[in-house]
Amino acid sequence: MTTIDYAKTALVVIDLQPGIADRPTLAPHAGETVVQNARQLIEDFEAHQGFVVLVNVGVTDGQDQLTPNLGERTPDYRQPSPLLNTRLLAEIANYKNAHQITKRQWGAFYGTDLDLQLRRRGIETIVLCGISTNIGVESTARDAFEHNYHQIFIEDAMTASTAIEHQHSLQYIFPRMGQVMSTTTFLEKV
């Protein structure tokens, strides 16, 4: 049985913004399902005075984003464009105590104050959710692991471009770094 110490646990929500969460091709969970489950988690953290971090991705002029050399291959993901709507979805944007971070790459640690804000609050455990499971969430999780945070991954509050990508992270990557559970299981604190 897992007990959640909200004084030492933060919820980190990745990239729930227009152009990402409203894509019709997300799998295995629709964006609206992920947003609904993330809202439940945010409300739970707020009710327990827990720390909530809402992360969005954005670029200003295109010069501040990564540009990997992929050779002849066309990338199977879309780089954020300067036209990407970086505001958070209205369903999650108005929580008064949430800390907001804009990242310029996949993970939420590099180039942001995420680690600083977590350490100042004595956070030891991160609950992760958002889009995309195998990109933004997994990149953040890998950095969190290297920063020695305990982690909980909320399976039905994240999704990817394909069910295979989502499942790969859940089956092979996340169990090496923390616990995987559903929104319901987390909210029941089991």
Automatic annotation (TrEMBL):
Keywords: Hydrolase. InterPro entries: Isochorismatase-like_dom, Isochorismatase-like_hydrls, Isochorismatase-like_sf. SUPFAM superfamilies: Isochorismatase-like hydrolases. The keyword Hydrolase applies. Pfam families: Isochorismatase. It is an enzyme of class 3 (hydrolase). The keyword Hydrolase applies. It comes from the Bacteria. Belongs to the isochorismatase family. This is Isochorismatase family protein YecD. The gene is yecD.
